[in-house]
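Appendix C. Worked example: Ureidoglycolate lyase
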Amino acid sequence: MRIARFVPTGGDPAFGIVELAADQGDHPDTVAVITGDPVAGPVQYTGARHDLADVRLLAPVIPRSKVVGVGRNYAEHAAELGNETPAEPLIFLKPNTSVIGQDEAVIKPAFTHDLHYEGELAVVIGRICKDVPPERAQEAIFGFTVANDVTARDLQSRDGQWTRAKGCDTFCPLGPWMVTHLSVAEAQNLAITTRLDGQVVQRGTTRQMVHPIPELISYTSSFMTLLPGDVILTGTPAGVGPMNPGQRVEVEIDGVGTLSNTVVES
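Step 2, the predicted output written as structure tokens:
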């Protein structure tokens, strides 16, 4: 199931179930409106339906408390920046004010001169959980979405910690929707492709994670409580690089979707 958060023309934000033409024959892509917040549940169909082309997609989830990032979780990415692969997950936080959705602009602050894309698989937490054993990680997951862990690389090295480098407004695009039909095993075998102005700049697979999804959930929940709607960014493959105002970044994850955003000046 694909769950989107959207605004219909002249309407208010709502959640809906995305029905793609590829899944339903000759019908156009549509979104069936549901009531309530699917992460918090329960929900119900209203009977209303919109063509997907006629609505504006929003970030599919606004984390209630936090976005948890994982650094250097792909060995080749760690190496390309001259870093060692960490023995334990390297955790940082992004505020929920950094979250934007499909086709929203990534704003390049004037105080950075080296803004990078980082295409990633994101895990959406579905329940309050603490001290989750790896073998029970599936129970903690609501679904998956696509992320771009936007990073001011010059600030990351200059500050010595990553709050400004990764926490600015608009630095966490999520979308285009959440998918709930993937198991952890399936999510651990997905191709990730990032394109900059249509040119492939990252190509990897979630199989390459140093610390797999169950370990990330278990490790993070060992020292902080995870809440429904929290998001874990699972790391990025090799190939990160600069993106500049006017350029468009697309992050595609097989079986999940394609997230697209354009960079603008502040």
